[in-house]
Design goal:
Elements: E1 7-12, H1 20-33, E2 38-43, H2 45-52, H3 59-73, E3 81-84, H4 90-99, H5 104-108, H6 111-119, H7 130-133, H8 135-144, E4 150-153, H9 158-174, E5 183-186, H10 214-221, H11 243-251, H12 256-264, H13 270-296, H14 301-328
Parallel strand pairs: 1-2, 2-3, 4-5
Length: 331
């Protein structure tokens, strides 16, 4: 099978407007994958409920904002299927059937789950929910419903993909070959630094958003950390420990040698360096902002993309579930 015939499924929880970390970590990779694969890109709104079931009102607006950024960054709805998970009810049906094929003991051994329980302090209060425990099974349903061959993931998600592979093999062995056994396409999701030097994250308030204006970018960069040992303008800097130099390497690499020399020789001060990199980031994002603005000015444009994507996704999901029911002799 050639890459052009292979199907990729990937998705994100709807978190609203995306930032540079989202772009360098996943979105940029998705755009490139469209050239070689049939891509399904999913707004994983049901997955929000596994850890944040109390705050559902924001999901619809966050979905719209995220899809705007997807399209402005280069996701092409003509090439790729852009859809919302909860709009395709077949995901829930396959999730239910796959849940019958896996033990709780297997799910509890999932190392990613153990890390989440620790990081989110879920041992306290009510503890982990049934839905969170079964999160990898829902993820398996998301993947298998489109008979995906490849799933781009970071290393921390490989245990989930292994559960998907186990479920596909078990189903095919018990009933009939319906599902390809998908491979995880290990992608190096760069942990892009935020304005405080930590990983860029909305929860930390250290982001630059793709939709930020040049003025917003400049204002945010004023707070950005630089070399802590460079106390005075005349002190030579250390670009290798400065997050601003990381931004140069990503958004204007052709100038990185010039910036390195200016910093290490103290010819270039941090204030000017921040201003200049802000201009470089704004220029890099300008085409994305323009495309986003044009979409926002067309009433119903994003909703139309989602509606059309939902129809294409539903068609594939219905066909898969027909094959699943025939194989299992149910329904």
């Amino acid at each position: 099978m050639t890459p052009e015939q292979k199907i990729i499924l990937s998705g994100n929880r709807p978190t609203g407007r995306l930032h540079l970390g989202n772009y360098t970590g996943a979105l940029e990779n998705w755009v490139a994958l469209q050239k070689d694969y049939r891509c399904f890109f999913m707004v994983a709104d049901w997955h929000v409920l596994t850890t944040d079931y109390e705050h559902t009102p924001a999901i619809a607006e966050n979905t719209r904002e995220m899809v705007l950024d997807w399209i402005s960054a280069g996701i092409d709805p003509e090439k790729s299927v852009v859809f919302v998970q909860s709009h395709i009810k077949e995901h829930a049906e396959l999730y239910l059937l796959l849940a019958m094929l896996i033990s709780t003991a297997r799910l509890e051994r999932n190392p990613t789950l153990k890390e989440q329980v620790r990081d989110l302090d879920m041992d306290q209060g009510e503890g982990i929910t049934y839905g969170h425990l079964g999160y990898p099974v829902l993820q398996a349903a998301d993947i298998l419903i489109y008979r995906a061959h490849v799933v781009p993931v970071g290393e921390d998600q490989l245990p989930h993909i292994e559960i998907t592979r186990e479920l596909a093999r078990k189903f095919n062995r018990l009933y009939r070959d319906v599902f390809p056994v998908p491979d995880g396409k290990l992608t190096k999701f760069a942990r892009f630094p935020g304005l405080d030097g930590k990983r860029m994250s909305k929860s930390l308030g250290n982001t630059i958003e793709l939709a930020d204006s040049p003025e917003d970018i400049q204002q945010k960069l004023k707070t950005a950390f630089t070399d802590p040992e460079r106390k005075r303008r005349s002190d030579p800097g250390r670009p290798e420990v400065c997050l601003i130099y990381t931004y140069w390497q990503k958004f204007a690499p052709e100038r990185s040698a010039e910036i390195y020399e200016g910093c290490t020789s103290a010819k270039l001060g941090c204030v000017d360096c921040k201003r200049m990199v802000g201009e470089a980031i704004a220029a890099y994002l300008a085409p994305l902002r323009e495309k986003r603005r044009a979409l926002e000015e067309k009433p119903g444009a994003v909703e139309a993309v989602i509606r059309e994507g939902d129809e294409r996704a539903r068609h594939a999901a219905v066909e898969t579930m027909r094959a699943v029911r025939e194989a299992m002799n149910i329904g």
